Amino acid sequence: MYENIEDFLQSPNNLMPVRYAYSDIRKMTNNFNDKLVEGGYGTVFKGKLRSGPLVAVKMLGKSKANGQEFISEVATIGRIHHANVVRLVGFCFEGSKRALVYEFMPNGSLEKYIFRKETETTSLSCEKLFDIALAIAKGIDYLHSGCEMQILHFDIKPHNVLLDERFAPKLSDFGLAKLYPTENSIVSLTAARGTLGYMAPELYYKNIGGVSYKADVYSFGMLLLEMAGKRKNLNPLVDQRSQIFFPSWVYDQLSKGNSIEMGDASEDERKMFKKMILIALWCIQMKPINRPSMNKVIEMLEGDGELLEMPPKPFQNPDEMPAPEAEDGGNDAEETADFPLLSLDRVDSSDMSMDQE
């Protein structure tokens, strides 16, 4: 395993972030004194560079995939710079020691703000949540079309959106990411990857369309619904059984012309949340061909919400779904449709998220 990683690190790459010795990692973390969070992926520590900036140091646990997650992270996030993508400052690979050094995000993950307990975190306003959603969309669009290679994240979810001191969001955790030539509309995968509840259906159902950047669009839609509803999409603890799966319930309410209960939200806030929900429902259409691109999503978010049309129902009952297939789907996801302008388990990888609480 380690020979494969070293081969990758020694390959010509002018954009490679700084390589640190393990002794440097120990110094910047003050001998791993300030632990931020621990998970199946390893442990994240707070650190400080000699030049002064704070960093988050992710010490990785044992790899399940021949070091592929480490390589994916360095190969993708190490070569890009965008306001809405967390910056990889450097890394360490020394024997069995593997670490990733990121810019520090003092407000942690978006997850704790949208699923918050009243006494734990600051409440984010509707306007701030909308701004965060738009910025996330711009970050994903950059991954898909702003780089020399298209980068598919495959694990867009609230836990992997980190917030800086101004609550500006940045995408993190590229351990499942894949790079593909921009001309490749369909990508080849040997196994499904992502987090159940956010994974696009084409990742495990063969005959609804090929795997493409539209998988990230689906994940963004599920994230957007959770931001608008300020709850998990799947919540068996709700009072009414019909509300257990939020996307299905909210679609039924809107299709019947019912207003969505949003506490003491103002009329403008209700319109903003409805806009987010409608866009999210377009993003989670069952077939990839029926989902917008992230560029179109940005256009919809920035446009007039009153012009958005109700999308088709994006779900089928489980007994209407085709049987899951082990292989990837066909090749129709590059087609485009006309869009009106209108806790869960991760698959294929241990959780490498960097929630800094």
TrEMBL record:
> What ranges does the record give for the region Disordered, renumbered to this chain?
307-357
Query: Does the record's keyword annotation contain Magnesium?
Result: no
Predominant location: membrane
Localization (cell): Membrane
This entry's Gene Ontology molecular function terms read: ATP binding; protein serine/threonine kinase activity
Q: Where is the Protein kinase domain?
A: 30-308
Mind naming one GO cellular-component term on file for this protein?
membrane
Which residue spans traverse the membrane? none
* Top-level division of the source organism's lineage: Eukaryota
- Give the compositionally biased regions (Acidic residues): 325-337
Classify the protein's membrane topology as the record does. Single-pass type I membrane protein
- Per its UniProt record, what InterPro entries does this chain match? Kinase-like_dom_sf, LRK10/LRL21-25-like, Prot_kinase_dom, Ser/Thr_kinase_AS
Keyword terms of this UniProt record: ATP-binding, Glycoprotein, Kinase, Membrane, Nucleotide-binding, Serine/threonine-protein kinase, Signal, Transferase, Transmembrane, Transmembrane helix
Pfam families tied to this protein:
Pkinase
Recorded protein name is: Protein kinase domain-containing protein
Q: What is the lineage of its organism?
A: Eukaryota, Viridiplantae, Streptophyta, Embryophyta, Tracheophyta
